[in-house]
Structure formats: C-alpha cells, structure tokens
Write a structure and sequence with these properties.
It contains 11 helices and 21 strands. The chain is an alpha/beta fold. The longest helix has 20 residues, at 179-198. It starts with 13 loop residues before the first strand and ends with a strand.
Length: 382
C-alpha cells in the first residue's frame, strides 16, 4: 500500500482562499465577454496553487462551462473527485495515454495528423467516440500544426472515424505585451476558422483568448475564452490593484499566513541563518516563522521579503531556509508565540501585494502561486 503524508489542516502556515473572490473574478470575466461566449476556466497546476477540486467545483457552480488543464492526470483527478463537466487537456498527449482519455470521457488535444490517427484507432478499438480539439500554432511555437499547414491536418482528422471535432484553438504568445503580433495571430487563426466554415466543418467551440486577451482584445473572444490568472485575482498586465472593470475589481483570492513560532533577543554582530547573510547592527529582536522555500516561499526573498506582525511590517532577514524564516522586529517590536503573520495578501487592515514580492525577485504571480507547496493547507473561506 502506498503511504503519503496528508496535509495537516491545523498547521500554523496556511493559504487562506476566498471562494467569494473566485466567484467575483469569474463575474469580471463574464462582464467582458458577449452573452453567448462560453468560459473554459483554467484550473491547471492545482488551480494555480489554489486547490483544483474545490476551485473547479466553485467555478462550475458559478457558471463556468468547461475546465481546462495541462495534463491527463489532472483531468483524471477531477473525474475521480466526482466532477462530470467537460474537461479539456490542452497540452500535448502521448499516444499510450489515449485509452485513459476515452475511458474517462476527457476531451483531447490533437496537434498532428499522427495523433489524430492514433486517437481514431484507439477509439475504434474501444468502441468509443473521441472528443477532440485541434491545436493550431499561430505563433507560440510550442505544440500544434502551423496555421499555414492546417488544412491537410483538419481534412484528415475530419475524415477519420470515431472522432468528433469539438473545437479548434490556438495560444497567444504576447497578448499582454504586443498588440500587433497578437493581431497577427488572430488573423492567422481566423483564416483557419474561415477554411473550416467554407467546408461546413466549423466545430462547436472556437477558442483563443487568455486572460490578457479577454481584458484587452475583444476580437479574440470567438465563442469561448480561457481565463486563467484573472480568476485568481491578478491582472496579467501586472499593475496593481487589479484594474477596474465596470465597477468590479480583480480580487486576489489567496492570502499566505503563518504564526510566530519562536522569539529571541540577539546582541549586535549576530549572524542570522545560513552563511550569516544578515548580521545584526545593534541589539534586536528576531522571530522565527515556520515556513520556507519547501512551502513555496521563494529563497530569493532572503533579506528582501517582508512580514506583517501585529499590524506592523518588518523585514525577512537572513537566508530563507527550507522550513523556516527569520524576521527582525527591532528592539521595540512586539511579537508573541502564536501571533498571526501575513506573508502576502490581506489581514485585518494590512496588505502585502504578491506583485510587490514578485517584482523584488524578478518573477510573476503565476509562478509564485503555483509554487505554494502541497504541504501548505488550503483553508477555504466563503
């Protein structure tokens, strides 16, 4: 029997997640698209670190039509969790996975003639009908048939038995940074869609827009959109506090908190943490917090992070350890074992924006959120 360590829900370090904010962010998406445009909620990578099962259930109850993931195992987990809504695996597939797609009623991305033929063959063998979305590469150069070679790929897939082409899609490479190239990609995609329409084979779903395109490029919406980071409260254009969309704002859903686990007074000249990358200049008070890079608190925040204790902001000092970090609260700072500590998000009237932490270490909100490890319990608030 395979054993694993279960997440301890009473652990002092926890990610508190507002389901109300998830629902509100979905409403922002809805306000930006037409009434007949469907929403494929992207819940890959554990719903961007927020917990794929609960977030998927919440988004579906709030009106999302589809779920999008990157890998087959994510989709199978959703099925085993009792979620029966349409799920598309947007990433490339391995041929030996096709049977699992079909047996679990999971929609498949085909990105080549060879894969379409393999899908058809497996479906015939199992007496199933595969639901397929055709991936067209319009400029991402990741997976998919180039737009200029798409016609043969489409025609061959359409003639294969045991396949229903449910959709065509592509992925925008620079929607948050380059309108001209994005327009080029849209034009390439439209030419493929027009070809299918002329052949009377345009599928039910035509989808291209990610969060940035949902916000900034209405021409990219077609009849389904794929919001990701904006569902979790972050603007892909990077500015804070999340924009204003007809009176609504994107609201970050996750707050990372912990509790003070230790307190000590250190004299001047005391080195803190590994390799003494921080040395106290005068007598001060150091508190220890029970989280580290093993929980997803990036090691690059050594001597650069911040924490809020009792309403006051203090610096993270010394090297971030795998399981612990230290905070210098100064000679007059006050902290007690068990005090709540804010690492990012909101607590009472205090706020640390995740964007500000990402700016310090040269990363993006997507990465930081996805790196919050599974040993950090997700605590859901409504």
């Amino acid at each position: 029997m395979q054993l694993h360590i279960e997440t301890y829900q009473n652990r002092p370090t926890r990610a508190e997640i507002s389901l109300g904010r998830i629902r509100s962010n979905l409403e922002v998406v809805r306000s930006l698209i037409g009434p007949d445009v469907k929403i494929m909620a992207m819940v890959k990578s554990n719903a961007y670190g927020h917990g794929i099962k609960v977030i998927s259930e919440t988004l579906l109850e709030a009106g999302a039509h589809y779920l999008g993931v990157a890998y087959l195992e994510e989709a199978i987990y959703l099925r085993k969790s009792g979620i029966n809504a349409p799920v598309l695996v947007c990433g490339a597939i391995n041929i030996d996975q096709i049977e699992d797609f079909l047996m679990n009623d999971i929609e498949i991305t085909s990105s080549s003639i060879d894969k379409s033929e393999a899908i058809s063959s497996a479906a015939k063998r199992l007496g199933k009908t595969a639901k397929v979305h055709l991936k067209i590469d319009t400029g991402m150069e990741r997976i998919g048939v180039h737009w200029y070679n798409a016609e043969r790929f489409i025609e061959r897939t359409l003639e294969l038995p045991h396949i229903i082409v449910k959709g065509i899609f592509s992925h925008l490479a620079k929607a948050e940074s380059d309108n001209e190239f994005t327009k080029t990609q849209i034009g390439r995609f439209e030419r493929v869609a027009d070809f299918m329409e002329r052949k009377n084979s345009l599928p039910e779903l035509v989808h291209l827009a990610n969060s940035a395109a949902i916000i900034g490029i209405p021409d990219s919406h077609f009849n389904m959109v794929r919001p990701g980071i904006m569902l979790y409260g972050y603007n892909p254009f990077g500015y804070d506090p999340g924009g204003d969309f007809g009176g609504r704002k994107l609201l970050p859903a996750m707050t990372l908190k912990t509790k003070v686990s230790y307190f000590k007074v250190c004299p001047p000249g005391t080195g803190i943490s590994y390799n003494h990358s921080y040395v106290t200049k005068s007598q001060t008070r150091i508190v220890t917090l029970p989280l580290g890079y093993g929980d997803g608190y990036n090691r690059l925040l050594s001597n650069r992070g911040e924490a809020v204790i009792r309403g006051k902001s203090y610096p993270v000092v010394g090297t971030v350890c795998m399981d612990q970090i230290m905070v210098d609260i100064g000679i007059n700072g006050t902290a007690y074992n068990g005090d709540d500590v804010l690492l990012f998000g909101e607590m009472n009237s205090s706020r640390i924006s995740l964007e500000s932490l990402c700016d310090k270490i040269g990363t993006i909100t997507y990465e930081f959120l996805c790196n919050i490890s599974l040993r950090v319990p997700r605590i859901y608030r409504d």
